[in-house]
Amino acid sequence: MHRHTHRSLFRKPQMKVEPPKKSKLKWMVGFFGKGIKRLCMALGAMILISVCSSLIFFSMMSVPTISIKLPDEMVLYYRLDGGIKEENMKPSLMDPFPMKEITMPQLVRTLSAVEYDERVKGVVVSLHGQPLGLSYIQEFRQAIKDIQRAGKFAYVIAPAYGSNGAGGSYYLASVFDRIWMHPVGIVSLAGLSMETPYVKKVLDKLGITPQFFQRKEFKSAFESFTSEGMSKANREAMQAVVNELGEQITQGIAQGRGVESETVKGFMNDVLIPAREALAKNLVDELGYGDDILEYIEETSGLEEIEIVNFSKYVGHVMAKREAAEEVAYIRIGGTLRLSPDPYGDYGDKDLLTSGSDIAAAIQDAARQGYIKAIVLRVDSPGGTPAAAEVIRHAVVKAQEAGKIVYVSMAGVAASGGYWLSADADKIFALPATLTGSIGVVGGKVTIQELAKKLDINFETVRYGKNAGFWSMIEPFNAEQIERFEAMLDATYEDFITLVAEGRGMSIEEAEASAKGRVWTGTQALDRNLIDGLGGLGITLDILAKELGHENQRDLALVQFPRPKHTYQEILEFIEQQAVFMGAMVKIQPMLESLSVFFEPKGVLVHSGLESGL
Fold first, then answer.
1. CA 91/CA 95 separation, integer angstroms
2. Is residue 205 packed enough to be buried (19+ CB in 10 Å), middle (13-18) or exposed (0-12)?
3. Do both 572 and 559 map to the same domain?
4. Region of residue 517 (left: phi > 0; alpha: psi -120 to 50; beta: else)
5. What is the dihedral of CA 235, 240, 243, 249, to 10 degrees?
6. Residues 449-493: pLDDT tens digits?
7. Distance CA 593, CA 597 (A)
8. Residue 55 domain-assigned?
9. Are 221 and 442 in contact (CB under 8 A)?
10. How far apart are CA 577 and CA 342, in angstroms?
11. Residue 539 domain boundaries
């Protein structure tokens, strides 16, 4: 039997209909447009959660510090996992809850309190992570020496010292009374080196032309772009700096370990020294772990019961309890100097950029306060635009005219513009390893004219003015423009030399002899009257305290300028930052979607009744 299927006579045969093909480009734009849309929705939810969390976070920050009771006898424990910053990062979109670490000013001030606190019997430091910069190591070492002079012990332990090839961690450790290292660790003292890549040949091949001009021979900031190798003057200056820093490290280790400098240089030649060999050579005192230190303290301290207190807890206690007869303005100047404020606001990294106008305003604000008699500028800047340095220096002079004492404490680097702004201070202090000076000027631009030709890129321009293209990246300076640029550098260098001479009480000839763009260490700068003394923030504050009629820095309270914002201001600015970012993301999505219409397989674009030929 056959089964017959009855079908309608009017039924059309079903045909497989394929959707119209879309261009690959349109598909990609649509795909990314949908992706952006979903991303915006996800970001919106994340930002909403982040804002709520921020409200809780900032509210917690605004709770008054509760006084913490500390034991009558204690040992402080400080675990140093990485570097030490001058100040903690503020909340940002990328990092709404930055970790709060102990800053260098807090470390110096706290160890100063330890020196006079009879309850603290000693300090144990555990070193981990990356080593500190030489200037910070020296500042840390000085603070440890101060508490040792007060009769307190200082012990240090680490899995290894300088395992990444840098000898800074052992330089720091050598000042401690006893050094522990893990039994499988190594001590590495590889010496010092500075390596600079010279890329002129590569730039020539690419068709990129750097045009930089300097005042004077030692001002070599852009030499690696304009030359194929190190100039004689630059090599002379850099070798002198490396030699000086190397001697500081060698002598510091020799004094700390009670050996001759030549012995330490022999250790540097050995490069890698395993644990047992390091013990035999008196580089370390013990091989062991944290519990071994505790046992040693129990056996030697005479304490019936050891109370180990975390250093951060003690810092909080000291900062909360500090009372002083004198409040001193504290203003940090870090990173590259620029005249205008950071476009990222207070949420930018102050180790990268500093606004000269903002710092000048902070100095002026401090100078207006009747209770402020002195201002401390903490400078850690390689320089930047002369205008930014000058506006800060001018504010310093105005503060002095208002009767304020201005001290400068130089950190890792205070060179070029960093020295310019410091020159008129009443006193300047730097650490032996601080890089300062560099009294000179350099400037120019990079052009890509030849690169554009190689890539068949044709730039067409319209201009008003003979030199409207002075800063153009597509054409180099001509002879007339170079002459004008050189004249500007001459004038700026003359201004720099003059203000250094006036600020430091030198003749123009004396200032010139220490200038020429040359970088000096703190020790070398002291010999040339560019600074008044060697020491970090602690020594700066001790000397300032005496000038103000006090015993030492314990009688001073640092008041931060620019003044910290109120909690509600921090909340509003953080929310605003998030809102700006979210608004930008929302705008991108419809822009991408609108682009897809251009890739429709049509000959005309129809929009609002108007036709435009494509």
1. 6
2. exposed
3. no
4. left
5. -120
6. 999 999 999 999 999 999 999 999 999 999 999 999 999 999 999
7. 8
8. yes
9. yes
10. 14
11. 324-440+477-564
